[in-house]
Amino acid sequence: MRNRIALLAFAAVVALCAAAAARAAGVTVNATVTGGSTLAVSSLNTPSFPVTLNGDDQTATYQAQLQIVDARGLATGGGWNLSITSTQYSDGAGHTLPANASTVTGVTAGCHSATSTCALPTNSASNSNVALPVSPTTTKILNAATGTGLGRIDVNVNASVAVPANTIAATYTSTLTFAIAAGP
């Protein structure tokens, strides 16, 4: 009798498992990821530098911090170019620093790790010891090859400014303009 009850219990368990297996179904989930339209550059800081005249020519340095967002999601045909131009340093009272006073000394890029993974730009632009042009002339300082430069990318542009010894003491201002354009 015990064997018969155990056998019936075993058969019931097998039947339940078979019934449960017979009711299982695989479900395919499709994800459609659509690229956005954003390709933008923005400034993250307001760089400045102090110089105390001492009778000698001097060189000051600063760093412009930018953020590039490429949310287009293009694996082929994407890429971008970052260019820069500037205005000549002027105090607004007729005094200027030389038009060729500024030099881009280096550019670095990294993922904005706080909120984004990224595909770092594969750069082929010269961006070390490049004369910073005065508007309307521009120069390319960073680019992303096809399939790179995607996501949110922080960029540091290091620059130096030559301040001649005969500079009039004043507050001088120059405006940097960064432009980003699609294309490798």
Task: Outline the structure in words.
This protein has 184 residues and is mainly beta. It has a single domain, classed as Sandwich (Immunoglobulin-like). It has one helix and nine strands. It has one helix spanning 2-22; strands at 39-43, 58-70, 80-86, 102-111, 118-119, 130-131, 139-144, 150-163, 176-182. The chain starts with a helix and ends with a strand.
Instruction: Count up the helices.
Output: 1
What pattern of helices and strands is seen along the backbone? HEEEEEEEEE
The radius of gyration computed from the alpha-carbon positions, rounded to a whole number of angstroms, is 30 Å
Q: Do you know the CATH topology? A: Immunoglobulin-like
Assembly form of the protein: single chain
Backbone structural class: mainly beta
- The gross shape turns out to be elongated
What is the average of the pLDDT values? 88
Percent of residues in beta strands? 35-45%
Low-confidence stretches: none
How would a crystallographer describe the biggest sheet? 6 strands, antiparallel
Tell me the number of strands.
Answer: 9
- CATH C-level name: Mainly Beta
Helix content: 10-25%
**Amino- and carboxy-terminal Cα gap:** 82 Å
Q: Which CATH architecture would you pick?
A: Sandwich
> How many structural domains can be distinguished in the coordinates?
1
